[in-house]
Amino acid sequence: MTGTRDEGHVGVVGMWVTADGHIRQELRADGRYDEARGIQRSAYTGRYTVTGSHIDYVDDSGFTATGDIRDGVLHHEHLVLYREEMQA
User: Fold this and answer.
1) Residue 41: phi, psi to the nearest 5?
2) Could you say which DSSP state residue 6 is in?
3) pLDDT tens per residue, range 5-33
């Protein structure tokens, strides 16, 4: 099960950003992610799976990471990311 196909994932898909906007992580509906850092687009890309509020990441280069969404905030390893609101 990946991305939006997993139960309990509601609210995960979309753009997540650090408070300073330096790191932007897009969690896509197809179970892929794309993370930009500063001006470097696609600094990290890979796939993710969701179990409840827990996220497991597998980067295309092979390393793994985890994250948890607590109170609408994504805690990804040492990062804290907030959902970017869609502009109308």
Assistant:
1) -75, 150
2) S
3) 444 455 799 999 999 999 999 999 999 99
CB 54 within 8 A of CB 72: no
CB atoms within 10 A of CB 31: 19
State the chain's mean pLDDT as an integer.
88
DSSP state, 85?
A: P
**Residue 88 above 70 pLDDT?**
no
Instruction: Answer whether 0.70 is exceeded by the pTM.
Output: yes
Per-state percent for the chain, helix, strand, coil, to nearest 5? 5, 55, 40
Tell me the one-letter amino acid at 71.
D
Sign of the Cα torsion 66, 53, 42, 4 reads positive
SS3 call for 3: helix
What is the chain's length? 88
